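A.,

Following up on our hallway conversation. Structure tokens first:
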């Protein structure tokens, strides 16, 4: 059995990875607890993280990587005597990540600027979160005494979106080195008001929603469903016009999320809208626990694609393998893309990469055993899932 799949194992282990969705790394000056590396939990719930399967497994993985004891104390000590640059280089080199696309809208304490990740990984792209952009625009206007109307907001929002550098230029002078090109938009509508997005929200509804948003307080945090839907629709119109992908949070997350509203099946009205049939939509996080639903959507809507970061590595081994198998029950392999959803700690990128390799090998090997794939087809799937699909989809100029 091992000899039969030796070539597949070798291909999986040697593959360079394009991490198509992640977040910024933090410095040691941050007070974010290291336990957050292993869970979406926060507050008192973090105290139970050490009894999870993911924690116990990941602790051994990190201990082996750092050549230290498999204990939280030993790993924390190892981290404290190593600089964040050393830790990051160790994790990314072991992960073989050649490109990373960063959603930098999570304002983590003492996080590294997005452009500085270029010192860690050869290619860095930026994912622009539309709700955060809208909030920044409104906050800036309020600070400057501006009286917002829906028309003035829309003009400013669209103008700002179209002003970002979307061109992927390889240039290394000081000015352009600090520019990180935007490669996709992202929405967290699932967190704010749910995925049952109304593609036909009216101008009157949006005007009333904006008025309510402005009344709700400063700094602005947009949760009004009509305004979230309005922002999303305007953004997707632009994305379609300029051929930008739109990443959408689906499935599990931290406790701010109402999981009931994060099922991608809620997107049906949007996906059926004739205006958006040629859009390019990415369902993030394997939509766990709605992975079969995501698989189904990607099989019948040509505009729907899938990422599986966060589900890998946060679930148990059985959970990761079963989730990936559910994704591939219906999803075209050409639509499935690797990501880590790495966040704050470089170890999250390493764990995401390590377990993606283990899971993809296991799933593809089983697919060969069961007659779904030949070994040459499985080898092609390795390249597609780990890098080729993302390079093509996001139009990345990376080797």
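Then the amino acids I'd put at each of the 399 positions:
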């Amino acid at each position: 059995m091992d000899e039969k799949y030796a070539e597949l194992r070798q291909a999986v282990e040697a593959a360079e990875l394009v991490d198509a969705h992640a977040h910024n790394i933090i410095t040691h000056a941050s007070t974010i607890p290291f336990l957050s590396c292993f869970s979406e939990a926060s507050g008192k719930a973090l105290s139970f993280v050490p009894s999870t399967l993911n924690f116990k497994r990941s602790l051994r993985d990190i201990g082996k990587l750092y050549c230290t004891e498999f204990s939280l104390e030993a790993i924390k000590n190892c981290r404290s005597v190593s600089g964040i640059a050393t830790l990051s280089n160790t994790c990314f080199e072991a992960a073989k990540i050649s490109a990373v696309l960063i959603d930098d809208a999570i304002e983590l304490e003492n996080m590294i600027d997005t452009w500085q990740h270029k010192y860690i990984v050869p290619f860095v792209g930026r994912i622009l979160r539309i709700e955060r952009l809208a909030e920044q625009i409104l906050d800036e206007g309020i600070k400057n005494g501006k009286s917002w109307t829906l028309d003035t907001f829309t003009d400013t929002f669209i103008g700002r979106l179209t002003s970002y550098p979307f061109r992927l230029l390889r240039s290394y002078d000081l000015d352009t080195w600090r520019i990180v090109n935007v490669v996709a938009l992202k929405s967290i509508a699932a967190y704010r008001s749910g995925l049952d997005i109304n593609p036909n929200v009216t101008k009157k509804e949006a005007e009333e929603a904006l008025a309510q948003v402005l009344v709700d307080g400063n700094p602005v945090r947009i949760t009004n469903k009509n305004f979230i839907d309005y922002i999303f629709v305007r953004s997707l119109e632009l994305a379609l016009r300029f051929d930008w992908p739109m990443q959408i949070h689906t499935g599990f997350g931290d406790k701010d999320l109402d999981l009931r509203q994060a099922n991608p099946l809620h997107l049906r009205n949007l996906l059926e809208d004739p205006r958006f049939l040629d859009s390019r939509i990415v369902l993030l996080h394997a939509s766990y626990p709605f992975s079969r639903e995501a698989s189904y959507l990607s099989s019948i809507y040509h505009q729907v694609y899938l990422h599986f970061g966060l589900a890998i590595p946060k679930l148990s081994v059985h959970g990761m393998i079963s989730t990936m198998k559910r994704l591939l029950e219906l999803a075209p392999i050409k639509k499935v893309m690797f990501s880590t959803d790495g966040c704050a700690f470089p170890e999250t990128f390493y764990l995401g990469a390590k377990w993606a390799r283990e899971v993809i090998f296991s799933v593809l090997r089983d697919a060969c055993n069961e007659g779904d794939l030949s070994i040459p087809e499985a080898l092609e799937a390795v390249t597609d899932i780990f890098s080729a699909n993302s390079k093509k989809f996001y139009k990345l100029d990376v080797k």
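The chain has 16 helices and nine strands. Curious whether your intuition agrees with the design.

B.
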